[in-house]
Write a structure and sequence with these properties.
Length: 115
């Protein structure tokens, strides 16, 4: 068993997956600790910033459902799906940046009413 040449790559892959899972769980834990700040900052965002983030999430993550549609290989649907995917990605990034900027302002002035 120890002479198996596939053992070392398998152990490395398992270690890599465990490290990634640990980092994801640590990030979720830190977000959970900051949920009050995030909720407060979310309330201070402009409506278009909230919409960018929400629509970006919907389009960016759910456009992949189009991959099983019968018309997926036609030119126009393929181009539209690619455009929607890129637009969704951009909107998601703009929304995340706006939220992070609001959180930064909140932390810079924690006692100030951030509105």
């Amino acid at each position: 068993m120890l002479d198996d040449p596939n053992l070392v790559p398998l152990v490395l892959v398992i270690l890599f997956v465990l490290v990634v899972l640990f980092l994801i769980l640590r990030a979720i834990r830190s977000i959970w600790k900051e949920r009050r700040i995030i909720k407060s900052c979310w309330g201070n965002l402009e409506s278009y910033q909230k919409s960018f983030l929400q629509v970006g999430i919907l389009v960016f993550f759910f456009i992949h459902g189009f991959a099983t549609h019968p018309a997926k290989d036609s030119y126009l649907p393929k181009v539209l799906a690619d455009m929607l995917y890129e637009a969704g990605k951009g909107m998601f990034i703009v929304g995340v940046i706006a939220l992070l900027q609001e959180i930064h302002e909140y932390r810079k002035h924690p006692n100030k009413d951030n509105q």
